[in-house]
Write a structure and sequence with these properties.
disordered N terminus, 2 domains, 3% strand, Na+/H+ antiporter like fold, disordered C terminus, two-stranded antiparallel sheet, 70% helix, mainly alpha
């Protein structure tokens, strides 16, 4: 808080003689945020909106508007050119089309973390990778234990996932009581978890394959790689090929949202300008701007000033990698648009007291709930303890194993990815889908409250001087 106040004091204040010509509610310069801080801010705020949309979906599904809500889900929506037409229900457009943008951002995050983040060095990555693997394996085994031999067994992937927006948001709400290293650990764990979920979707939740369309998708991927190797940094060619990849995968039987991850991995991670060159050009452009400025002139009437500013804008773009720019551009639309809309159209389940009691006696709901709450906790904690014991990893700064265990509870907030996998696992089996969603929502609520309470108590103990 004190740091934020200092930052605000150093900001230029609007007023006479300040040089700021913007409307009262505009800010010309925001506080400088690192990529990690920007990521956490968008995930935290997005998590709150996600929670609100979940509540709205539940209210709609349990009110007199339920028939209208269900009809809206099945509303046919199509696009066409001439005689060609692609038509799906609104629900499918959201899950297979809109969610491709979510997976695109997931892919960008994965690539960045592997190149320069927590997953770039083996020893640094060992702890979150091991924790994520344990947190995926144990929940899946628990679900299989409840459902082995039954016709609902294909839902084993549902409790494997962690919702990064909810889980990171919960940790940030306790920012004063948890070390920053713990937040970094959870984010890295959740990103590896997302990669695991993507692989599970690609390998195990794929319908019958149409080989010609799959070959077409492979050709598009080759085209994306050629753009990367050729040094193409404009976004439009990648976007057009990514759309072609999405459509090819949609027709091939592989889930179309994987086009987002694949496309993200082909986005260049190299800038056009070296930072030293950009610094030199920046000083030159600033001097040119100052030399062309005349008293009373605005930028609208001064051609030289306007040309200089445009050159500066081009340089600012060129010194950034396309990967960084796209991640910055798409974080907010996905966090505040795509994921809340997904929740609004997927979290609406009927909640009748009698039906709820019966639901939690069913192996599907039990497998999901126990898998997410206990499975994540056991898997994350045991795997973390093992790699630390073997000396393959080290604890993040100022953290303890008991805090990692509490994060293991928070990792049981499955929600977005768990619901997404449930939609794939139980397509055409609405009874099992309803049971799975009930388990996901219950488990996310239990894991979130229990994990936050535990971390809050640990923070209290630490503040009291006990270790």
């Amino acid at each position: 808080m004190q740091e934020q106040q200092r930052d605000e004091k150093t900001q230029p204040q609007a007023g006479p003689g300040s040089g700021i010509l913007y409307a009262p509610w505009e800010r010309a310069f925001e506080r400088v945020l690192t990529p990690f801080e920007e990521f956490i801010r968008s995930q935290t705020s997005g998590g709150l909106l996600l929670m609100a949309c979940t509540v709205i979906a539940l209210l709609l599904a349990n009110s007199g508007l339920a028939p209208l809500y269900l009809a809206l889900l099945q509303l046919p929506v199509g696009i066409g050119i001439g005689s060609w037409r692609l038509e799906m229900s609104l629900h499918h457009w959201i899950n297979e089309g809109l969610m491709a943008f979510f997976f695109f951002v997931v892919g960008l995050e994965l690539k960045r973390e592997m190149l320069v983040g927590e997953l770039a060095e083996l020893r640094q990555a060992a702890l979150p990778v091991a924790a994520a693997l344990g947190g995926m394996a144990v929940p899946a085994l628990i679900f299989l234990g409840f459902n082995a031999g039954g016709d609902a067994v294909q839902g084993w992937g549902i409790p494997m996932a962690t919702d990064i927006a909810f889980a990171a948001g919960a940790l940030v709400l306790l920012a004063a009581r948890v070390p920053r290293g713990l937040v970094v650990f959870l984010v890295a764990l959740a990103i590896v978890d997302d990669l695991g979920a993507v692989l599970v979707i690609a390998l195990f939740y794929t319908s019958d394959l149409a080989i010609p369309w799959l070959a077409g998708a492979a050709a598009v991927v080759v085209g994306l790689m050629v753009l990367n190797l050729a040094g193409v940094r404009r976004i439009l060619p990648y976007f057009l090929l990514a759309v072609a990849l999405w459509f090819s995968l949609l027709q091939s039987g592989v889930h179309a949202t994987l086009a987002g991850v694949i496309g993200a991995f082909t986005v260049p991670a190299r800038p056009k300008y070296d930072p030293a060159l950009f610094s030199t050009q920046l000083r030159r452009m600033t001097e040119r701007f100052d030399a062309s400025r005349a008293p009373g002139d605005g930028i609208m009437v001064n051609e030289e000033m306007r040309a200089t500013v445009q050159a500066l804008e081009s340089g600012v773009v060129a010194v950034q990698t396309p990967l960084q720019r796209l991640e910055h551009i798409w974080h907010l639309p996905v966090a505040f648009g795509v994921v809340p809309v997904f929740a609004l159209f997927n979290a609406g389940i009927p909640l009748e007291s009698g039906a709820l009691g019966a639901a939690f006696r069913h192996p599907v709901a039990l497998g999901v709930t126990v898998g997410l709450v206990l499975g994540k906790f056991i898997g994350v904690t045991a795997a973390s303890w093992l790699v630390l014991r073997l000396g393959l990893a080290q604890l993040p700064a100022q953290t303890r194993l008991v805090q990692l265990a509490a994060v293991g509870l928070l990792a049981g907030i499955g929600f977005t990815m768990s619901i997404f996998i449930a939609e794939l696992a139980y397509a055409g089996q609405p009874q099992y889908l309803l049971l799975a969603k009930t388990g996901i929502i219950a488990a996310s609520l239990i894991a979130g409250i229990a994990g936050m309470a535990w971390l809050w108590l640990l923070g209290s103990v630490r503040r009291g001087g006990q270790r």
